[in-house]
Write a structure and sequence with these properties.
Elements lengths: L1 H20 L3 H19 L5 H9 L5 H26 L12 H24 L9 H13 L10 H13 L7 H26 L4
Helix pairs in contact: 1-2, 1-4, 2-6, 3-4, 3-5, 3-8, 4-7, 5-6, 5-8, 7-8
């Protein structure tokens, strides 16, 4: 499983580095697309705990593999954020959105559900599986969802955890940690799990 873990680390690292250096959705989506082409045949190119959780729900990953994937993704995100901070001069922001937090959590859940549903569809449906369109579709889907104005970290819990770890390592602590966890971690993971069940339901033709 070593090469799978290395690929998940590397893919998440590159994706997060671009995210830390650019606030523009398109470059972030293109970086994700590129790393999907690099690692899709190696690890499945999850690069996102919500995607890995969805795969686990569908029995595509066992418990050990899920933990290994998520750990590699978090470490990759942490490394990308730290290197990005050296170039950008500041740590990637993970601020609480204004307004009702539960509304923002619900929006994050729904957006991640859409993203993961797209990932599962192009990875599993025979018309798309193994085709060269997978990376393009997923990358542009991410860019489109990120362009809605939310912090792109809401679409990837590994980025959120990495940002929180940097705050802790920097000695600054985490302000409003429970609310950050709700919006940036719990809601996206729930969206990934719901996407797995939705895919199974929508594609059950028996």
């Amino acid at each position: 499983m070593g090469h799978y873990v290395i690929m998940e680390f590397l893919g998440t690292f590159i994706f997060t580095l671009v995210l830390a250096l650019s606030s523009e959705p398109l470059p972030i989506g293109l970086a994700l697309m590129a790393m999907i082409y690099v690692g899709g045949h190696i690890s499945g190119a999850h690069y996102n705990p919500a995607v890995s959780l969805a795969s686990w729900v569908q029995r595509g990953l066992n418990n050990e593999a899920l933990l290994s994937y998520v750990a590699a993704q978090i470490l990759g995100a942490l490394a990308g954020l730290m290197l990005g901070a050296r170039f950008a001069g500041s740590v990637y922001p993970l601020d609480l959105p204004t307004g009702n937090l539960f509304d923002h959590a619900l929006i994050g859940l729904l957006l991640v559900m859409v993203l993961v549903l797209v990932v599962l569809t192009v990875a599993k449906v025979s018309g798309y599986k193994g085709s060269s369109i997978q990376g393009l579709v997923i990358g542009l889907t991410f860019a489109s969802l990120a362009a809605l104005g939310l912090n792109p970290a809401v679409l990837n819990p590994a980025v959120a955890v990495g940002s929180m770890l940097i705050a802790v390592l920097g000695g600054g602590g985490i302000m409003d940690a429970p609310n950050l966890v709700l919006v940036y971690i719990v809601a996206p993971l729930a969206g990934g799990a719901i996407a797995a069940w939705a895919y199974n339901f929508l594609n059950d033709r028996k």
